[in-house]
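User: Design a sequence. Structure:
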C-alpha cells in the first residue's frame, strides 16, 4: 500500500525518460547525425549501437559522446552536438517525439493543486525549451532549468541553483536516473523514481523514496 506524503511546494522533473519518450525523437536524429559525420570525414565505420546513446541519457553531453564514440576527435564530438540538436529540432517541427502516457493530464492536475512545477535537465537549453513548448506543456512550468543554459557540472548543482533562485523550501525530485536520485537526496528532497523508461542500469534508483511504474501514479502519493 502506498504511503501518502505531505503536498510539496514544488516538483522538479527530469525531461528525458521522465516526461518525454526521448527515443521517439532521438533515434532518427542520431542516425542522421552519423550519416553527416561520415560525409564530413569526421567519423568512419558503422553508426555506434543505439543502446550506447540510450544508456547515456541523463548524462551531460560531453560524457555522452565519450561513451558513444570514445576514439573520436574533439572536433567530431562538437560537431555531433550541433548536428544532433539540429536534427532533433527538425524532428520536433515535423511532429516527432511523444510524451509518456498521462504526463500532460498529471501535470495539469498537479498544477491545479497549486504545486509549482519546474524542469531540471542535463540537456541543452534549446532542446529542453523546444521539447516542452512543442508538446504543449510549457505554460504549466514556472521555470525550465538545463545544464546547457546554466553551465552546471552536475544535476546536484542545477537543482541547488533552482531551489535557491525560487526560494523553495519543500520539493520532490522526479526522474529516472541515478543523477536525479543523487540530486534530490543531496538537496534534501523527496525523490520519486520513474521506473518505466528502461534506460537505467541496475541499482540506479536505489535510495529513492517512491518508485512509480507510470507517470500518473505520482498523484496516488499526494
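Assistant: Done.
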Amino acid at each position: 500500500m502506498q504511503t501518502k506524503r505531505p503536498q510539496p511546494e514544488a516538483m522538479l522533473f527530469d525531461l528525458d525518460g521522465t516526461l518525454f519518450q526521448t527515443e521517439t525523437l532521438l533515434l532518427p536524429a542520431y542516425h542522421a547525425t552519423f550519416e553527416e559525420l561520415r560525409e564530413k570525414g569526421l567519423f568512419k565505420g558503422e553508426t555506434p549501437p543505439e543502446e550506447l546513446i540510450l544508456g547515456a541519457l541523463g548524462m551531460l553531453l560531453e560524457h555522452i559522446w565519450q561513451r558513444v564514440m570514445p576514439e573520436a576527435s574533439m572536433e567530431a564530438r562538437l560537431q555531433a552536438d550541433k548536428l544532433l540538436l539540429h536534427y532533433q529540432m527538425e524532428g520536433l517541427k515535423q511532429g516527432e517525439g511523444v510524451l509518456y502516457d498521462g504526463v500532460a493530464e498529471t501535470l495539469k492536475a498537479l498544477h491545479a493543486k497549486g504545486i509549482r512545477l519546474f524542469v531540471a535537465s542535463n540537456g541543452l537549453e534549446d532542446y529542453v525549451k523546444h521539447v516542452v513548448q512543442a508538446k504543449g506543456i510549457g505554460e504549466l512550468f514556472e521555470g525550465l532549468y538545463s545544464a546547457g543554459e546554466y553551465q552546471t557540472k552536475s544535476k546536484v548543482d542545477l537543482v541547488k541553483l533552482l531551489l535557491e533562485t525560487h526560494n523553495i523550501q519543500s520539493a520532490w525530485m522526479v526522474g529516472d536516473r541515478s543523477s536525479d536520485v543523487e540530486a534530490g537526496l543531496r538537496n534534501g528532497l523527496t525523490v520519486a523514481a520513474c521506473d518505466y523508461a528502461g534506460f537505467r542500469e541496475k541499482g540506479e534508483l536505489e535510495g529513492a523514496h517512491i518508485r512509480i511504474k507510470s507517470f500518473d501514479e505520482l498523484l496516488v502519493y499526494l
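The chain has two domains: 10-19+100-221, 23-93. The beta strands are 10-13, 20-21, 98-99, 116-121, 143-146, 171-175, 190-194, 210-212.
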